[in-house]
């Protein structure tokens, strides 16, 4: 994945987080803002950084300046990694939001959602099966009750 692909991934994340009017700015001369989006009647200017090392002050400065240029209500820096201590301090002072650890792969695909639901169902079944082994929960009747070792493995 490169920086441009990460910008599109960030736009997808924003859409899932119920942002609207999401627009990726032009690649050059963007004044430090890669995405403009709206939520709760606020305009967000978002700088996206796809790095292999913690993001520093420059990204915070770019987001702050770019958000002012585009008349945004909020400046944000999104990254796939973390931020330096200095960048965190500067962002706090300038009221720039930092969003670290944004996923770089589309974890929200249909197979991933199905697997998440199956995991939740299996976990719930294991909890019910574990409870059904106790005498005070004899009203729980399951078609298949695994042994204790199997339950421990399922729960972990």
Labels describing this entry:
Trna Endonuclease, Chain: A, domain 1; five-stranded mixed beta sheet; elongated; alpha/beta; 156 residues; 5 strands; 2 domains; 5 helices
Number of helices: 5
Q: Alpha-carbon distance between the termini?
A: 33 Å
Low-confidence stretches: none
Helix content: 40-55%
CATH class descriptor name of the largest domain? Alpha Beta
Order of helices and strands: HEEEHEHEHH
Total domain count? 2
Instruction: Please tell me the CATH architecture of the largest domain by its name.
Output: 3-Layer(aba) Sandwich
Principal-axes shape call: elongated
* Main beta-sheet strand count, sense and barrel state: 5 strands, mixed
Q: Quote the beta fraction.
A: 15-25%
Mean of residue pLDDT values: 85
């Amino acid at each position: 994945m490169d920086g441009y692909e990460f910008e599109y991934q960030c736009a997808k994340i924003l859409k899932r987080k119920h942002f609207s009017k999401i627009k990726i700015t032009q690649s050059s001369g963007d004044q430090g803002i890669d995405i403009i989006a709206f939520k709760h009647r606020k305009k967000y200017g978002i700088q996206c950084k796809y790095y292999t090392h913690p993001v520093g002050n420059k990204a915070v400065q770019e987001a702050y300046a770019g958000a002012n240029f585009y008349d945004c209500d909020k400046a944000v820096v999104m990254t796939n990694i973390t931020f330096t201590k200095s960048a965190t301090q500067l962002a706090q002072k300038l009221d720039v939001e930092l969003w670290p650890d944004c996923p770089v792969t589309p974890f929200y695909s249909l197979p991933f959602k199905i697997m998440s639901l199956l995991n939740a169902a299996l976990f719930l079944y294991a909890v019910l099966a574990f409870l059904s082994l106790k005498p005070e929960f004899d009203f729980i009747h399951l078609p298949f009750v695994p042994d204790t070792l199997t339950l421990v493995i399922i729960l972990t």
